[in-house]
Give the backbone structure.
Amino acid sequence: MSYNGWPNYQTFVVFSWLANDEKTYGWITKEVIPSAPPKRGLEPINVAGYAIKDFVEGLLWPEEFIEGSLKTDLLQSALSQVHWWAVGKAFMEGQDE
């Protein structure tokens, strides 16, 4: 089910949080996306989306990550619903402005 023009609520929330913080937005557009290596057979929006996914997971899952808690199970479930290509596309379109 779509939400506010996004594929779903989870995708909307992830993009909104990342894009509404100026420092995070700048880091993603200036460091995360440009440093993502191209991958054979993937469109640039998908490459950007996977790079952002890796960035977000790096923020959320520190080295001392503990599996098997309610908190982590719920968070992993929500993140599995994110359409990362849509997040990558939105950030790439924002760079063109």
In short: The CA atoms of residues 35 and 51 lie 9 Å apart. The first helix runs from residue 9 to 19. Residues 9-95 form one domain.
